């Protein structure tokens, strides 16, 4: 019912009878509930409404202007004649943007925030809509307290959302995402952001424990817009266009073309390329190396070779990437919504359309349709039907040549993609240039690869169809008891079809490799010439059923509310993949290839099998849960809550007895400001909340029995199925548990002009599953999942919002600051393996008493003045014995501990100004007190992979250089332990602290009066600039510590929102 | 109240059948290995079982050399191994120590699981076959480890450290190095069980068979210098399978003249090596000089790099991978040598001549003869050297011959520095990967 407050209704009743000098009145909201704390200003006096909404004001006789204002309500001015007899009844209307914070949703129930003991964070549609984009989740970063996005340890992929610090090492880290009532199993980017009304983040155990074993990482509940009863027809339409710049090719400072060519010359003189030259793999050699070979073999003269190499010095692959490969990305989004409601029925219909073109010119379209209907069959029975349809279609764009990785590394930095007239040029990828031009004596297909053209010959289409339908019947059994049954069905079909036409390099290369020419010169193709078509289908089906009873009973000063219920869920996926060779697209005929017998391949002469891609897969996850949640409130001031949940699943390898995993939580809250003794006009609202509870984390990969996984194919030799060991029996394995204690203070100052909350929490994860190094002799790998330890984290979340200025020019600020620091309390495997602690960008150090992800490095003793070798410190003396410097005898005390690799402080600051219809919102975010390891020059990967950064130019070259550089000298042959030591040394660890400009949004709302003739009731135009980059950083090298590669480019979006 | 009873009944009904609901399989391609086909599928996982042999034993001999420039372009581990360094010769994690024990772990999973399967008249053949394969593969991998990290078998083997013997799939079980003596005893015991259980012919040579088990027993006893027993088992093998390829029928000009899974192969496995690969690996000239003009192996085994150097193309894999399985020619040579050492010279020569007739150009081969034991033995050893190169066998061969007093040392020159490995040096037991020493606390070879 509170939702009705969202409506903007103005009612004003007053009766003018009699004549007295004082005025009595009462303030209510539109639902008739008394509103306390309302400021009532007369000519010279100000009073506040009491708990029953009543106020008494006295004044001189005559007309007086009264103004009513309160947090969350629109200001109301009215003229009253004094004396005034009877009761002045004032109805205040809730402010649209503020009201949503009143109620929070857990996915199981919506409950008033003031009666919640848990830690809920509500993001209103208004804040979410200050950004533009296809996905809703991407908008959360930087505006959501307690939430951070980790782009590094997740391999730079996906949304590595972390809520309140990491509680697991091995298990899934992402929070559970709930759409309205049920976890959303499909692709979260299917959801139309315009359908989202608000998002609730469940942060502590009491809030999340209702989700049980999946809530260990926190829960994000997405609430979609709902139809309303007693609502007149409303139509709204919005649209936006977002343009994102090209990725900055020059962001990563790479080795210069000159330096690279000099290095290739150096390596050539050392004979580095000789074995590639004679190898049967015909490994591709770069243009410089080929020219040197030609000159050495007397095919061209040395001067020629040199001048041709010098021409290459003027090219730059990055310039071509920028010019020919990347473009500005665009994203268009349109959305239409309409809805209305009578007393018995209501409906809502929305449609969305998105069309994006990526920076590689890959198009993506999404069509959303959503319909909802509620029907009150009787006064007790309500039926709800909901349908959400999503269709997406994406196609391949250009290929990014900077990702091509051949047997001799990435493309050299002087590679040209097009000539001076813009005509596409071939690049050297799989084989030597001379080899592919002569192989097959002209009988072969052109073997060159044109990166700028090739994508045109491959048509890859990815279609996803998602249907989400739910049906709900709720029945008011007694006035305090409601039962409801909900069923939701979801089906997501995915189909990827890639047609590689005969012109594509993939087809030409495969056909050539599997061709042979016999003694008579006859060409035999074991893969027929024609399109190679790969098809992948996936089908996801989910059934959710929930039966739930809601209790809501008030008896005098006692109020009891709660839910009890159970649910069963079943999610199945089926996949199949296949490949067709030799499709003739005009006649739709295909050819068969021989998968059974190996074919002598042309290049190496090795026997190889033609790839068979046929594969089938099927998974089925089932869950049964029971849950209960009860809250008892006394006198509106004290609330005690309890909740518990048990989950069972068919997770593989669990014994049935272990499948049930009970979890609980309890909480208490005390509204101090409602106490009789509380008489503070400064602190108008003060509430204390505290909770404790447990949630769990299950890693489906960790089981207590040995399991095997069948390869999708038979062994080509024995023609029998073969299988991998996928899990090693570990009877000692236990589920991870996360315990959380939360204590919070909600407060409001000066009639909630400033309000906020301060929360302290302690999070303890026990029996943490972690990859633990294991003796290779066990035969199960270098690491194994074990219950490895206990970590404890302490955090403080501060959220503040203030209305600094109200009136014509208004200014609001919101700010959040998160502090989080964890440490390892116990580590069951305490072997200290010096170099092993440095793996990757962010890795689990497991040192007791130190953070989970600590940044440690090798002590640095500068470069050797004589040779430019990196030096460390071993037993107090300068050393170059890298094996010893990094080996097993290395103690933690011998290393440098910098601090944590995850920020201790992070936060955001948003300011919003509005004046005469204009609104300007600016949002900053920051991360402080952490360290990262920068990419260091690695000669090994420079030689083998042609990957090196510009530090190459700063390398030690002559005695004395050690005073100005820490980049080691170039040596040949290379030593990888030397590279590794340098990479892991303290000189490459930098401070990660930075402040980022998240976005700026400027909007203009046309005045309703001005819109009268147009038929619009509301029209807003806006422009948003986002990914504005870092405005301050601690490192001096211009590195964005949040990104592994090139940071997201800046974007600007224009759009409008309108309502009829 | 009626309404409440109704609600309660509804909930009861909903959860009554939940046990059955939860028994559904969560991933169709996953299984708990509990049937014979499941266990066979684990052993047919050829990437880990057949195609993961190590190359250390071959890189550490001197059949192949690299130019200084080619060597410098290799990784540091490879350079260290090539020059017989005592540390950092293996990758930290992906090394042959791990690959051996990974295969052993699979066999232990099979052997532990098969005990829970009832052996009956209906499944006896499969049951025996699977358990025989597992015993064979466990023995094969322990033996490979003993060859690389253990000293040659001799009177001291009861007190010298070999490799850990893993007989359980439990990864929590700590590892300790067993003596060389215990290692060989375990290998023999496993192989005898395998020979008893395996079928005479396997579905494919990727799987072991009884003749392959006999052949591996013959190789084991041969490397222990127990020649009376190596004779016995080589003979047992050859009774079941003794086909030889006639090299006259091969096309010497082909890139790889000898076919994969050819008639001689008893059980297939291979190793790869970037160092030995014929892109850079050159045949030691003194080895090449051993082949005379009519010896077909001269052109079938070696490709002429046209610059005075030769590469190897004679792998029984039919490609650039190095065959390290078992083949009839090796067994024939084991029998010939064992016969010669037993003084049965005519029979020894008969085996040798049978092999060489198939290796020499038609009608050019002059049958070997001799009456002096040493002379015949040397003839057999020479042909062994010429026939079985680059199969990972030379390392153990030299180790055991040095125990016979052969005094074979290795030496290599890199950029003017001479590196050498003296006969009977303890450095013939390679250093164990450092990571294993660090985590398991094993004793390192000195």
Automatic annotation (TrEMBL), chain A:
It is found in: Cell outer membrane. InterPro entries: Beta-barrel_TonB_sf, CarboxyPept-like_regulatory, Plug_dom, Plug_dom_sf, TonB-dep_OMP_SusC/RagA, TonB-dep_OMP_SusC/RagA_CS, TonB-dep_rcpt-like. Belongs to the TonB-dependent receptor family. It is a multi-pass membrane protein. Keywords: Cell outer membrane, Membrane, Signal, Transmembrane, Transmembrane beta strand, Transport. Pfam families: Plug. Residues 114-219 form the TonB-dependent receptor plug domain. Residues 1-19 form the signal peptide. This is SusC/RagA family TonB-linked outer membrane protein. One of its GO terms (cellular component) is cell outer membrane. The lineage of its organism: Bacteria, Pseudomonadati, Bacteroidota, Sphingobacteriia, Sphingobacteriales.
From TrEMBL, chain B:
Gene3D superfamilies: 1.25.40.390, 1.25.40.900, 2.20.20.130. It comes from the Bacteria. It is found in: Cell outer membrane. Pfam families: SusD-like_3, SusD_RagB. Residues 20-221 form the SusD-like N-terminal domain. The keyword Oxidoreductase does not apply. One of its GO terms (cellular component) is cell outer membrane. Keywords: Cell outer membrane, Membrane, Signal. Residues 1-19 form the signal peptide. Its main location: membrane. InterPro entries: SusD-like_N, SusD_RagB_dom, TPR-like_helical_dom_sf. Residues 330-401 form the RagB/SusD domain. Belongs to the SusD family. This is RagB/SusD family nutrient uptake outer membrane protein. It comes from Pedobacter alluvionis.
């Amino acid at each position: 019912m509170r939702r009705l407050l969202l409506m903007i209704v103005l009612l004003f009743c007053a009766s003018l009878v009699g004549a007295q000098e004082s005025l009595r009145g009462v303030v209510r909201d539109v639902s008739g509930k008394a509103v306390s704390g309302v400021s009532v200003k007369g000519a010279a006096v100000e009073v506040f409404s009491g708990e029953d909404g009543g106020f008494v004001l006295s004044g001189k006789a005559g007309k007086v202007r009264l103004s009513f204002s309160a947090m969350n309500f629109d200001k109301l001015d009215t003229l009253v004649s004094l004396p005034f007899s009877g009761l002045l009844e004032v109805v205040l209307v809730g402010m649209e943007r503020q009201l949503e914070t009143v109620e929070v949703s857990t996915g199981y129930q919506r409950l008033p925030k003031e009666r919640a003991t848990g830690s809920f964070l509500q993001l209103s549609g208004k804040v979410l809509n200050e950004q533009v984009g296809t996905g809703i989740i991407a908008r959360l970063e930087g505006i959501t307290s307690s939430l951070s996005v980790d782009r590094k340890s997740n391999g730079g992929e996906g949304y590595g959302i972390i809520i309140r610090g990491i509680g697991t090492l091995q298990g899934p880290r992402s929070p559970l995402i709930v759409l309205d009532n049920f976890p959303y199993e499909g692709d979260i980017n299917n959801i139309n952001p315009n359908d989202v009304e608000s998002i609730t983040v469940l942060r502590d155990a009491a809030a999340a424990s209702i989700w049980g074993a999946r809530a260990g990482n926190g829960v994000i509940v997405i609430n979609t817009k709902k139809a309303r009863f007693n609502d007149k027809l409303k139509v709204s339409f919005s649209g936006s266009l977002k343009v994102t710049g090209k990725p900055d090719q020059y962001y990563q400072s790479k080795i210069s073309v000159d330096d690279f060519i000099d290095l290739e010359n150096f390596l050539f003189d050392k004979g580095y390329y000789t074995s590639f030259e004679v190898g049967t793999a015909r490994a591709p050699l770069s243009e410089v190396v080929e020219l040197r070979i030609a000159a050495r073999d007397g095919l061209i003269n040395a001067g020629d070779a040199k001048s041709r190499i010098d021409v290459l010095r003027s090219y730059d692959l990055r310039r071509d990437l920028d010019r020919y490969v990347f473009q500005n990305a665009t994203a268009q989004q349109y959305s239409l919504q309409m809805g209305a409601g009578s007393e018995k029925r209501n409906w809502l219909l929305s449609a969305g359309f998105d069309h994006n073109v990526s920076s590689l010119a890959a198009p993506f379209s999404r069509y959303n349709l959503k319909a909802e209907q509620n029907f009150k069959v009787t006064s007790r029975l309500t039926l709800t039907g909901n349908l959400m349809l999503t269709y997406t279609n994406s196609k391949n764009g250009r290929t990014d040549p900077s990702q091509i990785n051949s047997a001799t590394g990435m493309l050299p930095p002087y590679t040209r993609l097009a000539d001076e007239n813009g005509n596409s040029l071939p690049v050297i990828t799989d084989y030597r240039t001379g080899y592919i031009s002569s192989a097959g004596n002209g009988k072969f297909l052109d073997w060159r690869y044109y990166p700028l053209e090739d994508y045109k010959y491959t048509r890859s289409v990815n279609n996803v169809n998602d249907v989400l339908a739910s049906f709900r019947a709720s029945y008011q059994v007694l006035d305090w008891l409601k039962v409801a049954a909900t069923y939701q069905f979801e089906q997501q079909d995915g189909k990827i079809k890639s047609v590689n036409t005969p012109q594509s390099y993939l087809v030409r290369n495969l056909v050539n490799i599997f061709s042979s020419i016999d003694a008579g010169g006859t060409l035999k193709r074991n893969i027929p010439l024609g399109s190679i078509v790969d098809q992948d289908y996936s089908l996801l089906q989910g059934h959710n059923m929930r039966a739930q009873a809601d209790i809501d009973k008030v008896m005098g000063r006692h109020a009891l509310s709660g839910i009890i219920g159970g649910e069963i869920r079943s999610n199945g996926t089926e996949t199949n993949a296949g490949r067709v060779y030799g499709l003739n697209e005009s006649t739709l005929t295909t050819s068969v290839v021989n998968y059974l017998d190996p074919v002598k391949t042309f290049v190496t002469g090795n026997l190889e099998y033609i790839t068979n891609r046929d594969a089938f897969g099927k998974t089925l996850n089932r869950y049964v849960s029971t849950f209960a949640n009860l809250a008892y409130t006394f006198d509106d001031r004290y609330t005690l809550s309890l909740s518990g949940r048990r989950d069972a699943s068919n997770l593989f390898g669990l014994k049935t007895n272990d499948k049930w995993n009970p979890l609980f939580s309890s909480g208490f809250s005390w509204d101090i400001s409602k106490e009789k003794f509380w008489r503070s006009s400064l602190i108008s609202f003060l509430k204390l909340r505290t909770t404790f509870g447990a949630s769990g984390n299950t890693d489906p990969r960790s089981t207590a029995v040995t399991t095997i996984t069948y390869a999708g194919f038979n062994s080509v030799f024995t023609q029998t199925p073969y299988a991998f060991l996928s899990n090693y029996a570990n009877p000692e394995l236990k589920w991870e548990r996360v315990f959380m204690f939360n204590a919070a203070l909600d407060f409001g100052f000066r009639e909630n002009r400033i309000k906020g909350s301060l929360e302290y929490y302690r999070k303890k994860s026990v029996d943490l599953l972690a990859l633990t190094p294991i003796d290779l002799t066990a035969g199960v790998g270098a690491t194994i999942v074990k219950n490895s330890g206990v970590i404890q984290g302490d955090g403080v979340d501060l959220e503040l919002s203030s209305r600094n200025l109200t009136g014509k020019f208004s200014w609001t600020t919101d700010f959040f600051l998160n502090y989080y620091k964890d440490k390892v309390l116990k580590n069951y495997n305490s072997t200290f393996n010096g170099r092993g602690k440095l793996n990757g960008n962010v890795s689990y150090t497991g040192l007791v008493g130190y953070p989970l992800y600590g940044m440690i490095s090798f002590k640095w003793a500068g470069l050797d003045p004589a040779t430019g070798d990196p030096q460390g410190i071993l037993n107090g003396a300068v050393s170059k014995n890298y094996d010893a410097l990094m080996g097993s005898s290395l103690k933690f005390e011998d290393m440098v501990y910098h601090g944590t690799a995850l920020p201790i402080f992070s936060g955001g600051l948003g300011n919003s100004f509005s004046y005469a219809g204009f609104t300007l919102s600016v949002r900053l975010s920051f991360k402080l007190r952490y360290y990262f390891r920068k990419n260091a020059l690695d000669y090994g990967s420079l030689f083998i992979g042609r990957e090196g950064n510009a530090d190459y130019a700063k390398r030690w070259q002559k005695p004395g250089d050690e005073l100005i550089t820490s980049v080691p000298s170039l040596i040949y042959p290379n030593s990888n332990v030397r590279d590794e030591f340098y990479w892991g040394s303290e000189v490459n660890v930098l401070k990660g602290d930075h402040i980022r400009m998240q976005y700026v949004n400027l909007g203009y709302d046309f005045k309703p009066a001005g819109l009268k003739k147009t038929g619009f009731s509301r029209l807003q135009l806006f422009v948003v600039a986002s990914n504005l980059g870092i405005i301050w950083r601690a490192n001096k090298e211009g590195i964005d510590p949040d990104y592994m590669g090139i940071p997201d480019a800046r974007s600007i979006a224009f759009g409008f929102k309108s309502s009829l | 109240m009626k309404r409440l009873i109704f609600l309660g009944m509804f909930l009861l009904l909903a959860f009554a059948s939940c046990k059955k609901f939860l028994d559904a399989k969560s991933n169709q391609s996953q299984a708990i290995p509990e049937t014979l086909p499941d266990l066979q599928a684990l052993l047919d996982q050829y990437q880990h079982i057949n195609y993961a042999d190590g190359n250390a034993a071959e890189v550490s001999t001197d059949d192949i050399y690299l130019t200084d420039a080619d060597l410098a372009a290799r990784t540091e581990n490879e350079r260290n191994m090539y020059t017989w360094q005592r540390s950092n010769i293996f990758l930290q994690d992906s090394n042959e120590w791990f690959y051996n024990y990974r295969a052993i772990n699979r066999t232990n999973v099979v052997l532990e699981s098969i005990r829970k399967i009832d052996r009956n008249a209906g499944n006896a053949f499969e049951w025996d076959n699977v358990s025989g394969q597992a015993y064979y593969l466990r023995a094969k991998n322990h033996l490979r480890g003993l060859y690389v990290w253990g000293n040659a078998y001799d009177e001291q083997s009861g007190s010298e450290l070999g490799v850990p013997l893993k007989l359980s799939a439990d990864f929590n079980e700590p590892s300790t190095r067993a003596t060389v003596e215990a290692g060989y005893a375990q290998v023999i015991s496993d192989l005898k069980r395998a020979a008893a259980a395996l079928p005479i012919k396997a579905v494919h040579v990727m799987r072991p068979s009884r003749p392959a088990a006999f052949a591996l027993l013959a190789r084991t006893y041969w490397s222990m210098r127990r020649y009376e027993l190596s004779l016995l088992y080589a003979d047992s093998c050859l009774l079941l399978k003794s086909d030889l390829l006639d090299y006259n029928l091969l096309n010497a000009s082909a890139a790889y003249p000898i076919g994969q899974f050819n008639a001689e192969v008893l059980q297939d496995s291979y190793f790869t090596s970037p160092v030995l690969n014929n892109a850079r690996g050159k045949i030691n000239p003194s080895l090449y000089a051993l082949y005379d003009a009519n010896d077909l192996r001269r052109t079938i085994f070696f490709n002429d790099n046209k610059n005075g150097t030769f590469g190897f193309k004679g792998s029984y894999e039919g490609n650039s991978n190095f065959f390290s399985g078992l083949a009839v020619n090796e067994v024939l040579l084991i029998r010939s040598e064992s016969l010669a050492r037993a003084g049965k010279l005519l029979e020894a020569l008969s085996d040798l001549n049978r092999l060489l007739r198939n290796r020499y150009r038609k009608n050019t081969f002059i049958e070997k003869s001799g009456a002096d034991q040493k002379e015949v033995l040397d003839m057999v050893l020479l042909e062994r050297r010429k026939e079985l190169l680059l199969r990972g066998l030379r390392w153990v061969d030299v180790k055991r011959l040095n125990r016979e007093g052969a005094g074979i040392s290795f030496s290599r020159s890199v950029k003017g520095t001479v590196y050498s490995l003296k006969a009977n040096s303890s450095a013939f037991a390679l250093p164990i990967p450092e990571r294993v020493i660090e985590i398991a606390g094993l004793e390192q070879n000195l």
